[in-house]
Amino acid sequence: MSKKDFNVEVIDLNTDKSKKGRKKKINGPSSKKKGDKKINVEKVDIKKKKNNRKRNRRDEDSVNDIEPNISNKSRNVQFAVVMYFFLALFIALCIYFCYFLAFKSDDFINSPYNARLEKLAENIIRGDIVDKNGVVLASSSSDNVRSYPYSNMYAHAIGYDSNGMSGVELDGNFYMLRSHAFFLERIKNDLMNVKNKGDTVVTTLDHNLQEVAYDNMEYDGAVVAIEPKTGKILVMTAKPDFNPNTVSDNYKKLSQGETSVLLNRATQGLYAPGSTFKILTALEYLQENPNAAQSTFDCKGKLTVDNYTIRCYHGEVHGHQTFMEAFGNSCNIAFSEIGLGLNKNGFTQMCNQLLFNKKLPTRLSNTSTSQFKIDDSTKDTLMMQTAIGQGETLVTPIHMCMIASAICNDGKLMEPYILDSVTNYKGINVKTFNSKTIDSILTQAQADQIEEYMRYVVTDGTATGLNGSNYTAYGKTGTAEFNDNKDEAHSWFVGYAKKDDKEIAIAVLQEKGGSGSKTAVPIARAVFDKYFSEIDKSKE
Amino acid sequence: MAHIVVYVSRFILVFLFAIYTYDCFAALRRSVGRERQKRLYHRQVFIMYIILIDLNLCIFVSTNNMMIILFMLAQMLFFGICMLIYKKVYKHASYALINNMCMLMTISFAILARLDMGNAIKQFVIAAIGMVATCFIPALISKLKMWNRLKWLYAIIGILGLLLVLVIGSRVYGAKININLGPIAIQPSEFIKIIFVFFVAAMLYVLPEDDLSKMKIDFKSSDFRKVLIATLVAGAHVLILVASKDLGGATIFLFTYIVMLYVATRKPLYLIISFLGMAVGGVLIYLLFNHVKVRVAAWLDPLGTIQDQGYQVSQSLFAIGTGGWFGSGLCQGMPDKIPVVSQDFIFAAISEELGAVFALCLIFVCISCIFMFFNIAMEIRDQFYKLIALGLGTLYGIQVFITLGGVTKFIPSTGVTLPLVSYGGSSLLSTIILFAIIQGLYCRQFEREDV
Questions:
Q1: Domain range holding B441?
Q2: Which position among A150, A278, A334, B419 has the lowest Cβ density within 10 Å, counted as fewest Cβ atoms?
Q3: Quick check: A101 and B262 CB within 8 A?
Q4: Which domain holds residue A61?
C-alpha cells in the first residue's frame, strides 16, 4: 500500500462521517449499526464541511473541543508526519536486515565462535574440496574422517580440520556442512538415518601449477600465483609444511616447534622485500620526476653516506647507466641516490596506496599486514636502505603478488580469492563467488611505464632466465638481506607473464635462497611454462 | 521423520505468514469493500490457526512431549474466546488489532515453548489472566468521561512508581528495573509508560490556545507555561529512568513525549529543539556512563569484542545469519546460545529457526499495528483521545523499533522487550492493556457516530 493511499483514506473518512451524521438525522438508525471500522466513501462533498463543524460541536461531551473551526483534516498533518517518520525508520531497518543477510552474514556464520556449525556437522558428511579442474584435495569418509591425498603439498592452502581449522577448510567451512543434494535423496537419507553428503567447495587453485611450484621449491618460503584479471589464486604453497592428515596426532609438536610450521608463509610471513621493492621506489621516482626516464646514474660499486656504505650485489660496478638500466641491473647505488632525493610523505603515500600498513583486501581469513615506516625524521641512511628494500620495510609474498597482478591488469587490483564456487556433491552448481574489483591502485600510465622496466629486467637484466619462452614475461628479482650475515639472503621474484589474453602473476620467495636470479626465477619459469603449456594443450 | 515435518514446515510457515501479512495491509487499503475486508480478516484467523497447529506440531515431533499437544489445544481455546469477546461483545472492536494480537502471541507461545516449556505456560497463564482482566477496559474507556481530568494523579503515580523502583528495585543486568514481590517480579515502568501517555495527553490536549504561530514560541503565553510544566514532569520521569540505568525505558519515554509535544503544539520547532537536545544528551550520556560506552563498542564491532561486551550481539547475529532466509526449522537451531534470548533477543530466535523472511513478515505485522494506531488517532475528533492514541502508538512503535534494531545491530542494543512476543509478564500485560485501550478508543469513536 502506498503512503498516499493511506493519508487520503483518513481524510475521506472524516468527511464521510459528517455525511453519515446527516443521513442519520433523516433516516434514523441505518445500516451503520453493523459497525465495521472502515467506512468507504463514494464521493467527497465540500459542502459537507459545514455539517462537519456542527457535528464537532455536538460531539463535545466532557472534553471540550478547543477549536471547532479547525477541521480534522488540518489537525492530522502532524499525525501523518509522525507516521511517515515511523515508516521510514522501519523501512530502513528492513533494508539493513536484508543487507546484513545478503552480504554481511558470512562473516558471522563462518566465525569460529559460531557453535551452530558444529551442530550442522553432526548430521552431515563434510563435503570435498577440489581444485578448479575437479582434482580432489580433501575428502571425508562416511564416518567423517578427513583425508588429504596430497598431504603436505596443500598443508597451508587447504589447511586442516582438526584442532581448529585453517585455509580453505576454515573459509569454506559453512558450505561443506550443508547439503544441496537432490531433495528426495535427502528425505530418503533422513528416513534411513543416514548422513547427507555435504556440498563440495571448488577452489581457484590449479593442481598442475601447485605441483610444479611445490616440487621446485628447494628452500623454505612461499609461492603465490594469481590470475590478474579475476584475482583467482592459482598457486599457494608455503614451506616448511606438515602433513594435514596427522595434525591431531602431532598438534602439540606442530604448534610449539620453533620453525612455526603452521604459519602460512604465503599470506602471513613478513619478509624484507629486497630489490623487488625497487618497483615501488621507481613508481615514486617516476611520479615525482616527469623526466625520470631520461635521468642517468653513475655506479662506482659503492656509496657512502654518514659512514654507512651501500654496495651493489656481489660488488658489481655498473658504471654509467640510464634509469631503465639501473632498474634492470637492480643497481643499489642508483636507487640509494634516488631514495635520498624522494619526498618522504609522497613515498609513504605511494606505499599506503599500494596496500602497505593496512589489512590486505583479500577474502582469505588470515593475512599479515605489510609494514612501511618512514617519516620526516627518517635519517638518510635509512632512506637509502628503504629505497632498495632493506631497512624496516616488511612484506608478505601475497602482497607482492597483488602488486604484480595490479601492474599486469593496467593498475586495477582484483580482490584475491580462493573459493571459486560451491556445488552439491554431484557437481551441480549451488553458488558461485564472483571476482571483485578493489580499486585502481595505479593509473594505466604508471602501470604501462613500470611494465616497460619490468620487461627490460627479463630481456636485459637480472631475470633473463625467463627469456626465450613462447610467452612474454615481466618481473623484478630481489635478494634480501635479513640479518648482519651478508652471505645469507632471501631470494625473491615478483612478476607476471602474458600470452594472448592469458595472464598470470607470481611472487616467489625462497628463504636463504641467495640470489633471486639463481633461485627464485627458475621456479617462476617452471610455473609460467606449465601454465601456458596447459592452455596450449586445452586448445588442441 | 521429524526432519521432514520440520523441513517442509519451514516453507509452509513462511508462505502462510506472508499471506497473513499481505492481508493486514490489503485490509487497510481504501478501495477495499467492507465485505472483502471481512473476508480478509476471516482468512487471517484461519491462517493463524494453521500456523499455530503447524508450529506446535514441529515442536511435538522434535521433542515428543505430549504436553505440547495439550498446550496447543489450550491456546486454540484461548484465542477462540479472545476473538469471541472482542468480536461479539464489543461490536465495534478492530478485527485487525485483535487478529494481530493473537497472531503475535501464537508465535510467542510457540517459540517460548521451544525454548522452555515452563516459561511458555507461565506466559500463557499471564496472557489468559490479562485478557480476562482487561476485557472491561474498552468499556471503561468509552463510557467514563473523567480520563482527561486526572493529570496530577497520573503524574504522581508515574514519578512515585519510578522512584520506588530506583530505591528498592533489584538489579538485572546492571539496570534497576524490577520490584520483587515474593516470587513475582514486576516491572512497573511497563505500566507507568501508559499512565505517562495519559498524563501528557491530559496536560497538552487543550493546546494550542493562544500561541498559534508555527516556528515561534511565545514565552509569555499560557500555552508555554503548560508545555513547561509537562516538560518538567516528563523530564523527571526520564531522569529517574536514567538514574536506574534503564536506558531503553528512558529513550521510550523521552521519544514518546517529544512526539506528543510536537503533535499537541503543532510546532515543528519543538521537534527540532528536542532532537538537537537528544543529540547533545546522547553524547553526554555516552561520555558519562561507562555501560553506555560498552554497548556502543559492542555495536560497532561485535566480533572484535566477542569475549565480553560483544558476546550477546554476536550470538544474535550468528543465529540470524546461520538461520538464513528460511531458517533452520523449529527446534533445529541453537537459540539458547544467545543470552536472555526469551526476552530482549526473541527476534533472533525467531529469525534463526523460522527464517529471515518470516521475521520480516513479523516486522510488517508490527508496522501494520502501528498504522492502525495512527489511523485510529486520525479518525478520532476529540483532541484528548487523539493524543492518547497517538502516544500509545508511538510507545509501541518506538519500543518495537528499539528492540528489533538492537537485535539486528542496526542500533546499539538497549535491552527492551518485543511487545506481545518476548517473555515477561509485565511487558505482556502492559501491551494487552495498551491494545485494550486502543480498542476502547475505537469503540468510543463508533459509538459517537451511532448516536
A1: 2-135+295-450
A2: A150
A3: no
A4: 3-75
